[in-house]
Every structure is written in structure tokens, then in C-alpha cells.
Amino acid sequence: MIVIGELGNKRACQAFVDYLSVNNIEHKVEKLDNRYVISVASEQHQVSEQMFTDFLHNPSQAKFLDASWQVNQPQNDSAFVDSNSKTDLGLARIWNSTGWFTKLITLICIVIYIAFYSGYSQVIFNALSFKLDLTQPYRLFTPILMHLDTLHLVFNITWWWYLGGKIEKSLSAFWLINLTLLSALLSNTAQAVLVSANFAGISGVVYALTGFTWLYGRNRPNSDIQLPNNIFVFLLIWMGLGFIDLLPINMANWAHLFGLIAGLISAQILTTNKR
């Protein structure tokens, strides 16, 4: 099952679920606090996502209202799974909250980190570190795949999974891939030119996803791509502390800043073009 979205109103959720039933789409609704998370069979998720987007834009369309009349027996509360009593569903929801590209980058980062501390650190750094060399163009991007300690890896991958998953599931892997490549190129180049090429990590991309998710949500308040202001402010403060050198760790500050700018500009362009 793949999550296609969530609704805060049970009646609205029931109406959409009835529409899924009428269209013979296998589905499940998970109650999470005061929200209802809707999942569908993986082979039907693309058409279901289009239906859900259509429902969000105008839930009063006749086809949605008619669906409830066509369902012989409305679904009872047993169709709404309470996740608080099903911890395994919580893990499944985390797994299903991302797409293949988010998972792939996460796996690559973990594998490289394990290899890095298995005696191949110098080999890996020499092969993947930033180098402005057109004969090895991949090295403009590959620093994002290396992490130098466990905290560095966990912090970055957690935000990558959370933010990248939102973008990939709501827009597509295509948009996430493009944003990742663009922000990696800009943030890596900025850090190398303004400081040095002695850096690693996907944090520049994470800040791009942060800026993108926050501004996209501001411009599209009904979108599934949202980032609370308090989280956005926290990450801005974290970046600021890096610039004034108050943290006990070295940070690629210019990569963070240029990544953030890339994400903000991308979100503004995309939401403007969709209007």
C-alpha cells in the first residue's frame, strides 16, 4: 500500500473513500491523531493520486457526491485503522511516505558511510570529493553521498527522508531529482570556491528541500507539501549558528546558504508557473 494523502475531516475522508470504492480501488484509511491517512494498492497509486488532487481542488463535484449514493453500504469505523494501536502501521507509513529516489539516495549514503569506516575512507574521498574537472563531471555532485560521522549521517538522512519524501510523493521523482541535482551543483560549487573542497554531506540539498517545501506550502496552502514555520526557523537558526561559529562542529555554511536559495527560487518558479 502507498500513501496518497491525508484529510482532517472524517466526512470528507468518507466521501473520497466511497469514490475509491466505486472505482474499484483497493484502499485503507489509517487514523493518526485527528487526521485520516489514505493508502491505496501500489499498482493503483498514480490514478488514485490524480483522483485525490481532483478531490482537494473541488470536493463538491457531482461525481464525489454521487459515489456515496452508489456505495451499497457505507464503510463503518472498522475501515478506519487506529495507528495508535498498530505500531507496525506506523513503520509502514514511514516507509511508504517516500518514493524510490528518496530511498535510493538514503541507501547509497548508508552504504558509502559503512565503506568509509571499513578502511576505504581515503579511496572514497579521493573518488567522490568535489573537483572542478570536466573530465569527471560527476564529482560536482558526489560529495552529497559522503558523510564523515554518525551524527552527520543521521541528521542529514532524517531530513532528506522527511522533506524529499514529501516532494517525491506529492510532485514526482522527476522534480526531486532535478532539485537535488541543481542544489547539489550550486551548494557544492559555492562551498568549494568560497572555502575549500574539503567537505562532504547532503546538507546543502537538505537546505534546498527546506526552502522549497516551506515556500511551496506558503504559495500552495492546500498542497501536501508543507513545512511548519517553527521547523523552518529552527533550521535557519542552525545555519546562522554555523556562520558565526558557535557550534562545536564544522559545517559547510555556504553550501547550506546556496542550497536554501536554490530551493526558494525553485519553489517560487514552480508555483508561479502553475498559477
UniProtKB/TrEMBL annotation:
Listed name of the protein: Rhomboid family intramembrane serine protease GlpG
Stretches assigned to the Peptidase S54 rhomboid domain: 136-270
Residues annotated as transmembrane: 100-120, 140-162, 174-193, 199-217, 229-248, 254-271
Gene Ontology annotations of biological process type: proteolysis
Membrane topology type: Multi-pass membrane protein
Keyword Protease: yes
Broad class of where this protein is predominantly found: membrane
UniProt keyword Protease present: yes
